[in-house]
């Protein structure tokens, strides 16, 4: 049996698989996300305790030994640890917006573009560069006390195995890694004013690092591999490897990924190139800030339960009776397929006749338009897989197929955990049938008439977005 561990933004999950890729059991625990006026943080001890708890519960259910385990988790943010691997302060999440003003300044003075032209990564407030620069200005004592600035899975790997601080090429991709050399670009470190903090950047395991569990959560001696982080892990778990093929993750973050062997550092700086364990193969990523989190907010505000979404979508026609949503709900604005830290969500076309169903459908349509924008910018030319919590709604999947105007290969279950196992198996030389492990659970075809309607709706969405971006800049 194999175990995949996925340390998400709001939930920690662990899944067990047999050699054929069948999901045998899953355990999950919610973790706290603290939000306060743009500051978004997580308690590292709580996160680690949740990892141990789900692993204890999962392994107690398994009838036999664990062959190996793979680890993945949320990317970006800053997880400061001391020399013993213990937290220096709360982790700053990838959703954090406190470095908003720094990114604005770098956008204005050319630093933002200079970094993108070197690494292919577009800075956003919750990425490690801006967060480290903010902490250096406002909490230098925290950086002084730290031994390493990690990402989430790296902290967990260190504590499960006792291994020295380290990361992998995928998490290192934003914003300091040169995708050509697969090493940190000290010129980027200097551009962000962090040369004196260079020692905090964790060594890059290339290929991914391995270690043996110390006996917390996993039986002592269990082989464990660290990485890749959740976006590329989901691509592996969904079978997205051929250049041009893509993946849409409808989760807290709305992430669009396209496999590529190209490296184009021209055009509007946005998104990033995620390096993979295969040199020369990358993922062109356009991870929009908010996916299901936008729908969750609307559901909470309107008092609608998740179980009601499919019925409401079925009861409301395409176009939602003129209600429109620009779904940019994140406190730190948007990062893909453009960077606009001051952008905020907009709701329009509402009247006293509008229903809750109109609001729900308009939100789902808006998220679909944002996904189409990201996938086009990422260069999608092949097949498209989709995974994440949004796949639990068949009506939303049909809506997405119509908005995107293409078939969706729906991959359900714990796709990130599955990808973490596949990465671990490859690292340890364990042969698995990848095609069998990554086969879709369903294929959703678009309806031609609705797809034509949404093509016009998408053009109108882009026009409203252009106006909203101008407004955000005018009020920056």
Automatic annotation (TrEMBL):
Residues annotated as signal peptide: none
EC number(s) per entry: 2.7.1.-
Enzyme class: transferase
InterPro entries cross-referenced by the UniProt entry: ATPase_NBD (IPR043129), Carb_kinase_FGGY (IPR000577), FGGY_C (IPR018485), FGGY_Carb_Kinase (IPR050406), FGGY_N (IPR018484)
MF (Gene Ontology): kinase activity
Carbohydrate kinase FGGY N-terminal domain ranges (all copies): 1-202
The keyword Kinase is annotated on this UniProt entry: yes
Domain Carbohydrate kinase FGGY C-terminal: 273-425
Residue stretches in coiled coil: none
Record's keyword terms, sorted: Kinase, Transferase
Keyword Nucleotide-binding on entry: no
Family: Belongs to the FGGY kinase family.
UniProt name for this protein: FGGY-family carbohydrate kinase
């Amino acid at each position: 049996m194999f175990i995949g561990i996925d340390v998400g933004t709001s939930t920690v999950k662990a899944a067990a698989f047999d050699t054929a890729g069948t999901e045998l059991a899953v355990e999950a625990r919610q973790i706290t996300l603290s939000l306060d006026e743009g500051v978004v943080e997580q308690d590292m001890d709580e996160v680690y305790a949740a990892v141990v708890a789900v692993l204890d519960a999962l392994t107690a259910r398994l009838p036999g030994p664990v062959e190996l385990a793979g680890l993945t988790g949320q990317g970006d943010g800053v997880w400061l640890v001391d020399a013993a691997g213990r937290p220096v302060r709360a982790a700053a999440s990838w959703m954090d917006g406190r470095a908003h003003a720094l990114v604005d300044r770098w956008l204005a003075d050319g630093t933002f573009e200079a970094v993108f032209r070197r690494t292919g990564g577009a800075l956003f407030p919750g990425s490690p560069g801006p967060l480290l620069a903010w902490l250096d200005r406002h909490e230098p004592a925290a950086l002084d006390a730290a031994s390493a600035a990690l990402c989430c899975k790296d902290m967990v790997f260190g504590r499960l195995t006792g291994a020295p601080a380290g990361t992998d090429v995928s998490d290192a991709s934003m914003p300091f890694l040169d995708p050509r050399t697969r090493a940190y670009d000290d010129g980027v470190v200097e551009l962000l004013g962090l040369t004196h903090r260079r020692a905090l950047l964790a060594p890059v395991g290339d290929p991914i690092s391995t270690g043996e569990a110390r006996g917390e959560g996993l039986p002592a001696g269990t082989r464990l591999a660290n990485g890749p982080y959740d976006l590329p892990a989901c691509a592996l778990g969904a079978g997205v490897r051929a250049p041009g093929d893509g993946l849409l993750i409808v989760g807290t973050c709305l992430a669009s990924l396209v496999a590529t062997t190209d490296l184009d550092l021209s055009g509007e700086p946005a998104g990033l190139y995620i390096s993979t364990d295969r040199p020369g193969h990358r993922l062109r990523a356009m991870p929009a800030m908010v996916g299901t989190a936008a729908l969750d907010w609307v559901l909470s505000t309107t008092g609608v339960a998740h179980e009601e979404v499919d019925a409401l979508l079925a009861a409301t026609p395409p176009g939602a009776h003129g209600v429109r949503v620009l779904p940019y709900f994140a406190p730190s604005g948007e990062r893909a397929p453009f960077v606009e830290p001051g952008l905020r969500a907009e709701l329009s076309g509402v009247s006293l006749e509008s229903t809750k169903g109109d609001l729900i459908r308009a939100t789902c349509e808006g998220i679909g338009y944002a996904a189409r924008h990201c996938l086009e910018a990422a260069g999608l030319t092949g097949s498209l897989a989709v995974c994440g919590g949004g796949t639990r709604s068949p009506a939303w999947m049909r809506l997405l197929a119509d908005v995107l105007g293409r078939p969706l290969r729906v991959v359900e279950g714990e796709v990130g955990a599955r990808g973490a196992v596949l990465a671990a198996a490859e690292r340890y030389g364990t042969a698995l049938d990848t095609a069998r492990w990554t086969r879709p659970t369903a294929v959703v075809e678009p309806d031609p008439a609705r797809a034509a309607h949404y093509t016009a709706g998408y053009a109108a969405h882009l026009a409203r977005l252009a106006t909203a971006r101008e407004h955000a800049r005018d009020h920056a």
